[in-house]
Amino acid sequence: MNCSEILKKLISFINIHLGFSISFALCCLLLLCIAGCDSTVDSLTIGGKRVNRLGLDAEVNYFLDKAEVLYSDLDKQDTLKNLIANHALIYTQTGSFNPIALASTLFGLLGAGAVTDNVRLRRKVRETVKTA
Predict the structure, then answer these.
(1) Is 13 inside any structural domain?
(2) pLDDT value for 68
(3) Which H, E and C letters describe 106-130, residue by residue?
């Protein structure tokens, strides 16, 4: 038997059993999709990209790690605020708190910031005048 005879017999079998042939082809395609293709969803980080379960797990772990770092930063900030508030409370309760000294310190810091801005702006104006 040569290839042309085998092909003719196959075509005649398909013509006789057309319904079975179509359903067999659809079942093969369905099995191929189920077994061969990974299930995918849209990525959390990259728009338009599809990821499978392993990729999604990696993205979720990345977000959890990032959130953990941010929470620890918030904890540090809250600890610092509580420390400052506790010191202020101790100073006011013991009477060793001097409001005039605090005001003088705050205004000194504000003045230093204003001087720094003034110097920075003057340098910027000088550079602009030199380049023009």
Answers:
(1) yes
(2) 92
(3) HHHHHHHHHHHHHHHHHHHHHHHHH
Domain membership flag for residue 62: no
The pLDDT tens digits for 14-41 are 888 888 888 888 888 888 777 777 778 8
pTM above 0.85, yes or no: no
d(CA 39, CA 52): 6
Q: Which residues of 115-129 are buried (b: 16+ CB within 10 A; e: fewer)?
A: eeeeeeeeeeeeeee
- The answer to whether position 17 is within a domain reads yes
Residue span of the structural domain in which 102 resides: 98-132
E strand or H helix at 51, and its extent?
A: strand 50-51
Q: Indicate the number of domains in the chain.
A: 2
Written as six digits, the tokens of 2 are 């040569």
Q: Is residue 48 part of a domain?
A: no
- Cβ within 8 Å of residue 53, ≥6 positions away: 38, 39
Helix (H, G, I), strand (E, B) or coil at 65: helix
